Inverse folding.
């Protein structure tokens, strides 16, 4: 069933149909929330709150835009509001390694480098990188979600990529120590 048909059915009183939208978008909602708050439990709560808010306000959704963009904006706003309330401070997880073969070690090294590089980004840069690379959102969709211009999205992405590149090149993680 097409997204617009599902929304129209929910509006017509078939509230159980909203479950299809939850199934389709809950992982992305969680991902956006987690990128902001960096806490698993809080991200799950925020994603759930965002989905509930979308359900409660589905009547105000304009069918001429993408539901996902509207929903992700709701979740992002909730995550940012939650972060302001909690004065959350980021911390880097300690990662332990048990014997890995060279290919696994190489992929693990790459993952560590990317994780370390993402941590140095500011919140907006991290969100935009996540939306573009991990959630396959277009520049236009990211601009709508973050409520900024497409040109600003491109500038932020460029700066974030540059920061990440400099971090990865300047300080490689040594797995043998």
């Amino acid at each position: 069933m097409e997204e617009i048909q599902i929304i129209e059915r929910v509006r017509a009183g078939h509230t159980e149909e909203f479950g299809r939208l939850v199934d389709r978008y809950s992982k992305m909602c969680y991902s956006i929330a987690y990128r902001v708050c960096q806490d698993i439990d809080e991200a799950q709560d925020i994603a759930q709150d965002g989905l509930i808010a979308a359900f409660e306000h589905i009547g105000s959704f304009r069918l001429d835009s993408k539901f996902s963009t509207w929903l992700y904006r709701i979740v992002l706003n909730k995550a940012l509001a939650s972060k302001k309330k909690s004065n959350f401070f980021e911390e880097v997880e300690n990662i332990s390694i048990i014997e890995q073969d060279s290919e696994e070690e190489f992929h693990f090294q790459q993952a560590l480098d990317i994780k370390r590089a993402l941590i140095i980004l500011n919140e907006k840069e991290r969100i935009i990188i996540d939306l573009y690379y991990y959630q396959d959102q277009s520049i236009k969709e990211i601009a709508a979600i973050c409520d900024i211009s497409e040109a600003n999205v491109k500038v932020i992405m460029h700066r974030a990529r540059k920061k990440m590149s400099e971090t990865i090149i300047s300080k490689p993680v040594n797995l043998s120590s």
Remarks:
- Helices lie at 3-11, 18-37, 40-56, 67-86, 102-120, 123-134, 139-146, 150-170.
